[in-house]
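Hello support,

Our group uses your service weekly, and this is the first time we've seen a run hang past the timeout. The protein is Small ribosomal subunit protein bS20. I'm not sure whether the cause is the sequence or the server load. Input pasted verbatim:
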Amino acid sequence: MANIKSAIKRAELNVAANERNSQQKSAMRTAIKKFEKAPSEDTYKAASSAIDKAASKGLIHANKASRDKSRLAAKLG
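Update from on-call engineer: The timeout came from a worker crash unrelated to the input. Re-ran successfully.
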């Protein structure tokens, strides 16, 4: 455990950020699974939006976001 005040604070912030990032990534995965279960225009938009949000926050690489969206679009059409 950290002894220095700033290190303690940083550790607490890391826990909070990890929780937030995990929720965001989980929401993205859920949106993708919903689309794969029932492909429609609405579920595609929701999944695509979730992927874009994850990419903009740095949770996934931009290339992975593009690849995932492309795969979803192929399943839609």
